[in-house]
Write a structure and sequence with these properties.
By secondary structure, this protein is an alpha+beta fold. It has 2 helices and 6 strands, in the order H-E-E-E-E-E-E-H.
């Protein structure tokens, strides 16, 4: 229950902190290649400083452990205009953020932290 309240609170904060220029952003660059077999590449760049690029590769085609391995990144500017880059990968081990400046979020927040946020 506390996790739901925490997530909803964070959602409201993130919506309230949106940049008004984001509503007027345009796509300046777009590329999308997909071979239909699990291999793909896409990239887009927007006028407000957001870039996203991702590559997917089919691994072990036709085998029981067939899967798509994904590598990618995205960039964005924060409210102060500082550009941030988040690099990630996803494979049979799950989704992993590789950017060194990010602090991992624990799977379950300590109850004392949630209680302090709720007052």
């Amino acid at each position: 229950m506390y996790q739901v309240i925490f997530i909803l609170t964070m959602l409201v904060i993130s919506i309230a902190d949106t940049n008004p220029l984001d509503k007027e952003a345009n796509i300046e660059e777009f590329k999308n290649d997909n071979d239909g077999l699990g291999n793909y590449f896409f990239r887009f760049v927007t006028s407000n400083g957001i870039t996203r690029e991702e590559t997917g590769r089919l691994i072990n085609s036709g085998q029981p452990d067939e899967h798509v391995a994904v590598d990618g990144f995205y960039t964005y500017k924060d409210a102060d205009g500082v550009l941030h880059t988040v690099t990630y990968k996803a494979d049979t081990n799950g989704y992993v953020i590789l950017s060194p400046l990010l602090t991992p979020i624990p799977a379950a927040l300590p109850e004392s932290l949630v209680a302090s946020l709720l007052g």
